[in-house]
Amino acid sequence: MEQIDKYLREHDIKPSLQRIAIMEYLQSHKTHPTADEIFNALYPSIPTLSKTTVYNTLKIFVEHNAALCLTIDDKTAHFDGDTSFHAHFFCLGCGCIYDIPIADISNVLKTEIDDLTITETHIYYKGYCKKCLEEKLKKQKEIN
Ligand SMILES: [Zn+2]
Ligand SMILES: [Zn+2]
User: Fold this and answer.
1) Which of 5, 32, 59, 97 has a Cα-to-Cα distance from 127 of 20 to 30 A?
2) How far is the CA of 81 from the centre of ligand 2 (A)?
3) Are the CB atoms for 121 and 85 separated by under 8 Å?
4) What are phi and psi for residue 94, nearest 5 degrees?
């Protein structure tokens, strides 16, 4: 809790109780939750919380580089409390998002390419997780 408070201050975010709760949830759940998932998880313990507050808080986090907004899922935005550079894998079957570490980022993280200035870099992989692939193959076998 104290650490989260410090983390938010370091990113020029005033640490209200609700903001601390949302950041704490983000940093302790590496599942890349959506705003709705965060709201549903926190609402029982913070009944004064509104969906609008969650959306606005996440927006502030992203604007202050305290969290990442992932657009890997074209249906909804997902959020990540880990702002260190890493790639993401999105399963087209179950929608889960995994972190993929990148060993050598020196070639990836450029701030300039020719006369373009880069402010964001995302690496998104899409495919099927092991479980979904097995289910897919099973279904295909049943059809044949
Ligand atoms: Zn899956
Ligand atoms: Zn991540």
Assistant:
1) 59
2) 8
3) yes
4) -105, -10
CATH number of the domain residue 27 falls in: 1.10.10.10
Domain enclosing residue 21, as ranges: 2-143
3-state secondary structure of 143: helix
pTM, two decimal places: 0.88
- Which amino acid, one-letter code, is at 50? S
Alpha helix ranges (H) inside 14-111: 17-28, 35-42, 51-63
30-83 pLDDT, tens digit each: 999 999 999 999 999 999 999 999 999 999 999 999 999 999 999 999 999 999
In this structure, the strands spanning 112-113 and 116-117 are antiparallel
- CA of 114 from ligand 2 middle (Å) equals 28
Q: What is the pLDDT of residue 142?
A: 86
User: Is 27 a residue whose pLDDT tops 80?
Assistant: yes
Instruction: Name the domain count of the chain.
Output: 1
